[in-house]
Write a structure and sequence with these properties.
This protein has 250 residues and is mainly β. Helices cover 10% and strands 30% of the residues.
């Protein structure tokens, strides 16, 4: 689940044009790095992650494919850079699905105060929460309880220092924000991250999770100057949209 991009001062936006009006150049046409996750179908929780760089108009795969897990009930169309789609489930708060589509990659985070990643980095503290209460004015934002007060985080399930609050849980030891629902649309889903998995078969509440080595590789590779984006799609949707969205060949 994810920081609101304003945390790093990197405001994202979502397209509201219908699919029929979507024309190149897409809002990710400037991107030269892409993280692609594909799954077998809307209800699958296991997927494959690949990374690509773009030179001119062609995408080239970098490194080997890696296994990941996503939401415990699969995936659903989210709110990001890609135009809205109606031919599948729609992401809702608490549905256990990971958002599908194309999203900016935002702030990296972790338990350590610093990290050598080139991404903007947030060292987490025991008072940091991501607010997943859709009636809150802080919905889909990372806040410091010490600054906003206990009432502001009441009911939030996303205490970011999981090692402190959840008996040594290492899930957020390192990770990064997937900028889903950046404007905080009510009940559209919040706090979507890429983070470390519990096991290779354990689904998440809506995030994409992976092995430590995979995440370490991503954080070392991602470069904000290359406007990296994150793509998650079932394979059938990937094939349908690949040409229109200028996605890499798998």
């Amino acid at each position: 689940m994810a920081f609101l991009p304003r945390l790093a001062g990197l405001l994202a936006f979502s397209l509201t044009l219908p699919a029929s009006a979507f024309e190149a150049p897409a809002s990710w046409s400037v991107s030269r790095q892409m993280v692609v996750v594909t799954t077998g179908g809307w209800n699958d929780i296991q997927g494959t992650l690949r990374t690509y760089t773009r030179d001119g108009g062609k995408w080239k795969q970098v490194g080997d494919a890696s296994p990941v897990v996503i939401g415990k009930t699969g995936s659903a169309w989210g709110v990001g850079l890609s135009p809205p789609q109606t031919d599948g489930p729609q992401k809702r708060e608490g549905d256990g699905r990971s958002p599908a589509g194309i999203f900016r990659i935002g702030t990296a985070f972790g338990y350590a105060e610093t990290n050598p990643t080139a991404l903007p980095y947030k060292g987490l503290t025991a008072s940091d929460y991501c607010v997943d209460v859709d009636g809150s004015p802080y919905y889909n934002q990372l806040v410091d309880e010490k600054k906003v007060g206990e009432k502001a985080v009441a009911g939030a399930t996303e205490a970011m220092r999981r090692d402190i609050h959840f008996q040594g849980d290492h899930a957020y030891r390192i990770g990064f924000v997937i900028e889903h629902n950046p404007d905080g649309k009510k009940a559209a889903g919040s706090c979507i991250f890429a983070h470390l998995w519990k096991t290779p078969t354990s689904g998440t509440a809506g995030c994409t999770a992976m092995a430590d080595t995979t995440m370490e590789r991503l954080l070392a590779w991602l470069d904000p100057s290359k406007k990296p984006v994150f793509v998650l799609l079932p394979k059938t949707e990937y094939a349908r949209l690949r040409d229109a969205w200028n996605l890499p060949a798998l």
